[in-house]
Amino acid sequence: MTRAAAILAALLLLALPAAASADVDPASDVLLFQNAFFPRVNPPSDALKNELTGLTKQANDQGYNLKVAVIGARLDLGGAPQLYRHPDQYAKFLGTELRSATGLVQPLIVVMKGGIGTYGMGDEAVSLKQLEVPDKATSEQLTQIAIDATKNVSAAAGHPLKAVSTKAIEKKSNNSSGGAPLIAFMIPVALLLVLGFVLWFRRKTQAGEPAP
Length: 212
What we know:
The protein is of the alpha/beta class. It contains 6 helices and 4 strands; from the N terminus they run ααβαβαββαα.
């Protein structure tokens, strides 16, 4: 193996964890770029997704940097399936992941079978006590509860939200019901391609061969 190939192999091993981490906790990857995460299995209707997306955008526009994760199944937890039906524990786990990535403590709501969990909130969290999650809640029901929770905590924090039309909202990029954003996978690959070309070009130059 040439020295250039060895370097490329080492770089590949270093880059793989960055791409693979996207599946460890799907919600933490999505919420770095969006304000709401939705179930990947049996996702809710577009109307409900659009409503929650619109409400969280309003809250963030007002300076209340709220994130909301709707968890419909163990699959949505990626590498942490043991936290399913444990909303408080998962909210702490997810909130810590986001804080590690951004350096910020952002208010977070987690809705799943088992209840509602929060992270990074003050007294506004008390407004969620009146909400209950049915034991066999569907993705539709979980998302509706997340909508109500978003309205409650935002109002309690001094940021009342206006009603959002359930008509389709134009989306420019990734659908949040999917996995991690494409950029999480493409950046390491692009870096490897660039580094590979640089090493190849340098080897050609040192060997005295004309570059194409």
